[in-house]
Amino acid sequence: MKWMFLVLLSVLMLGVPEARGQRDGKAYTAGYLVAGPALSAEDNAALELFERRGVWRLKPILLDTMRAGLPKADVYWSHVPDSAALALWENNPRHLDLLREEYLSGKSFLFTDLAALFPHRMGRNRLRRKCRCGDQE
Fold first, then answer.
1. What is the C-alpha to C-alpha distance for residues 46 and 40, in angstroms, rounded to an integer?
2. Which CATH class is domain 2-121?
3. pTM score
4. Domain residues of the chain, as ranges?
5. What residues does 103 pair with on adjacent strands?
6. For residue 36, which of 107, 96, 84, 99 has the smallest C-alpha distance?
7. Tell me: the pLDDT tens digits for 58-117?
8. Nearest-5° Cα angle at 13, 80 to 24
9. Per residue in 17-52, pLDDT tens?
10. Which of 27, 77, 78, 103 could form a disulfide with 33 if both were Cys (CB 3.0 to 4.6 A apart)?
11. How far apart are CA 130 and CA 106, in angstroms?
12. H/E element holding 75?
């Protein structure tokens, strides 16, 4: 499963040099949303890769420690690689409530892997998506 995440991350990084941030010299900030109490090995790999490239700053946001809205970022990214990570989200419905509120206030989100199910669970997508990746159907 880890290789799938790294492949996805590599594809994302290939598109970054064409991003507006590269052309005008500004490094954009992506708030990397984490539902658990700490960063996983995959989370740390993503942070390290983005830091080396320098176009996007990846700022980890531990939702378990949030008291109010999300800190400022240009986009918020949620990557849920497997059912264990998904369980961290499902065990705290307040996390999806927060994402719904922030989305409705106009913030931008990127949902990858099992996090692609979140728009439906947030009530923002009428159709329920099926995800056949990793250990989750």
1. 10
2. alpha beta
3. 0.73
4. 2-121
5. none
6. 84
7. 899 999 888 778 999 999 999 988 888 889 998 988 988 898 899 889 999 999 888 888
8. 125
9. 444 344 466 778 899 999 988 898 888 988 888 888
10. 78
11. 26
12. strand 75-80
